[in-house]
Amino acid sequence: MTSQQNLRHGSCLCGKIQFDIREDSIIDVVNCYCRMCSKASGSFSIIWGCIDNNSIYYSNVSHLSTFFSSRNVKRSFCNYCGSNVLWQSIFTKNITWFAVKLLDTELKQAPRNIFKFDC
């Protein structure tokens, strides 16, 4: 597999935030049903991909706004269209969870379901 085939491109709804990930660097993919993720997405659940910070590449981050949704989690979203883009825990600063459905193509890795308490 060439490195170009391994790259997956994604963007928020309006396209102002663009990002690329290396699919072979994804640590985990989860379908989260916790209350915080449900509130953040406005849906029953959201699919997050876990990746090392060095394997996700952003462009136009001026439209990325961040806030703490709890003591331990900061979430980032597009300040133009409101798309949830990512979240990070204060305990794992080298890891980013990105919204999988923002990718233009499907991942090979299927999400596993998790039911957990809010972070």
CATH architecture: Beta Complex
The name of the CATH topology is Metal Binding Protein, Guanine Nucleotide Exchange Factor, Chain A
Looking across the biggest beta sheet, what order are the strands in?
A: 6-7-8-9-4-3-10
Shape: globular
Distance between the termini: 36 Å
- The residue fraction in helices comes out at under 10%
Number of helices: 2
Uncertain runs are none
Order of helices and strands: HEEEHEEEEEEE
Beta strand %: 35-45%
Radius of gyration of CA atoms, rounded to a whole number: 13 Å
How many structural domains in the coordinates?
A: 1
Instruction: Just give the CATH class.
Output: Mainly Beta
In round numbers, the mean pLDDT is: 90
Structure description:
The protein starts with a helix and ends in a 5-residue tail after the last strand. It is globular, with a radius of gyration of 13 Å. It has two helices and ten strands. Strand 6 and strand 7 (73-78) form a beta hairpin. The protein has one domain (3-114): Metal Binding Protein, Guanine Nucleotide Exchange Factor, Chain A (Beta Complex), CATH 2.170.150.70. It is mainly beta. The strands form two sheets. The protein has a seven-stranded mixed sheet.
In short:
This protein is 9% helix and 45% strand. With 119 residues, the protein is mainly beta.
Features:
three-stranded antiparallel beta sheet; globular; seven-stranded mixed beta sheet; metal-binding; 2 helices; single chain; Metal Binding Protein, Guanine Nucleotide Exchange Factor, Chain A; metal ion binding; carbon-sulfur lyase activity; 119 residues; 9% helix; mainly beta
